[in-house]
Amino acid sequence: MEKEKVIVLDFGGQYNQLVARRVRECNVYCEIYSYRTDIEKIKAMNPKGIILTGGPNSCYEPGAPTYTKELFELGVPVLGLCYGAQLMMHVLGGRVEKAPVREYGKTEVMVDTTSPLFGNVSATTICWMSHFDYISKIAPGFSIVGHTADCPVAVAENREKNLYAIQFHPEVLHTQEGTKMLYNFVRGVCGCAGTWKMDSFVENSIKAIREKVGKGKVLCALSGGVDSSVAAVMLSKAIGDQLTCVFVDHGLLRKDEGDEVEEIFGPKGQYELNFIRVNAQERFYSKLAGVEEPEKKRKIIGEEFIRVFEEEAKKIGAVDFLVQGTIYPDVVESGVGGESVVIKSHHNVGGLPDCVDFKEIIEPLRDLFKDEVRKAGLEMGIPEKLVFRQPFPGPGLGVRIVGEVTEDKVRIVQDADAIYREEIAKAGLDRTIGQYFAALTNMRSVGVMGDERTYDYAVALRAVNTIDFMTAEAAEIPFEVLQTVMSRIINEVRGVNRVFYDLTSKPPGTIELE
Ligand code: XMP
């Protein structure tokens, strides 16, 4: 049976991946292609629908991204969004001009609910607008089925030919009924049955990886974090023992984390893969001895990581491919858009490794958002404990110990953090707080325990709520939970006599202490 596919043609807008994501949420398979993709290639893919994305250009300017008129004559439903809508009108004989009023933000749109796009949508609905240009005249054969106070053509349709143009962005959540509109397009207008699920993504990726890798050798830097773990398992399912995973234990992991990663991925684990654990603790501690400056610490840890990884790669010999667990937000952060040609993202493992001799990078998760990566992980049977793991910085506890890192300080912060995490989970807060951990301040102070004077360290507890990790606010943790954590840490962790709760927002603070 031929797979149902919707194609998203990328005109350089910011929300293109979101469009694809919303289509996937309608259980329809979706691929993104550049607007430069040849029409013959598109025909050969036999899509059930085509969506043209937004973009930063003005379609009437010379050299602006465009597409041949033939696209609209294939008999395949086409939905244009923002720039895509304007382009559709422009190419088919309508007119697009600079708008007298720029619309930006949440806007009330009045829609014709008899349009196939607006089944189950309210007649007046809030949408996200972001445009300088506007459609001043619709193309022949079209009618207007949506407008705002400032925009006479917010939506136009040629129902007979299944062509739809939407000026706003149904793919962003600010468009309150946007997902319904996209659902109406892909499931209604395009007639997709909606049989695609995350397991199909996993299955397709595995097939594609097999084809790409052939008999080649693949190396994966496994950190034990969600992304690299999901990528590693996918690769392992695809190519078995052609894959080698290198896990560098830098001695700055959370308590027992090294063993947990080994338990899952090592020889006794459920996956058949070549797993190399490098216990490099001593090496890292000795490089970090006496170093207090945060950036210097980060650099040392990053560089040493690469050196260890490189040494292992050399032992394995010529490696054809390197796997990275890059996910879509990483791609955005690195400023690498879909329209960019050379993609070499060294984001995930702290700048891996120009020095290792491999031919190509495989990034099987680069189109997914974090929650989709988690879904893929669950589909492949990765334990929940790992799938729902919190973000953990590459330099690990190195940036959660203020000042010099020593083995003893690592022990303190590991033990305190384990207690904190245990109590947060017991209180049922572990899936509600964005990120939480214990850190070690470099402060020592006087206390009394039993009849003895103590002069010990202060632990800082951090817990933040955040959506994008760019801004964050301290989470409200019930006082009795904090008290339990405090009392357990002071009783159970040698070398600590004081516990602080860090109330700082980001900005002005950062989430990690260094
Ligand atoms: P900050 O401290 O910058 O942290 O507010 C924001 C988020 O990023 C994580 N973080 C890192 N992740 N390598 C990483 O992979 C790093 O060097 C790094 N530094 C911070 C941090 O845990 C938080 O989630």
Structure characterization notes:
The termini are far apart. The chain has 14 helices and 18 strands. The chain has helices spanning 16-25, 39-45, 83-91, 178-189, 198-213, 226-239, 257-265, 281-288, 294-316, 328-333, 370-379, 384-387, 407-426, 479-492; strands spanning 5-10, 29-34, 49-52, 78-81, 95-111, 124-137, 143-147, 155-158, 163-166, 218-221, 243-249, 274-279, 321-323, 360-362, 435-449, 452-465, 473-474, 496-501. With 514 residues, it is an alpha/beta fold. The chain has three domains: 5-189, Class I glutamine amidotransferase (GATase) domain (Rossmann fold, 3-Layer(aba) Sandwich), CATH 3.40.50.880; 198-387, Rossmann fold (3-Layer(aba) Sandwich); 406-502, GMP Synthetase, Chain A, domain 3, CATH 3.30.300.10. Mean pLDDT is 91; it is low at 333-351. Helix 5 crosses helix 6 (226-239) and helix 6 packs across helix 11 (370-379). The protein binds xanthosine-5'-monophosphate (XMP).
Q: Which short descriptors sum up this protein?
A:
514 residues; alpha/beta; Rossmann fold; GMP Synthetase, Chain A, domain 3; 3 domains; nine-stranded mixed sheet; five-stranded parallel sheet; globular; binds xanthosine-5'-monophosphate
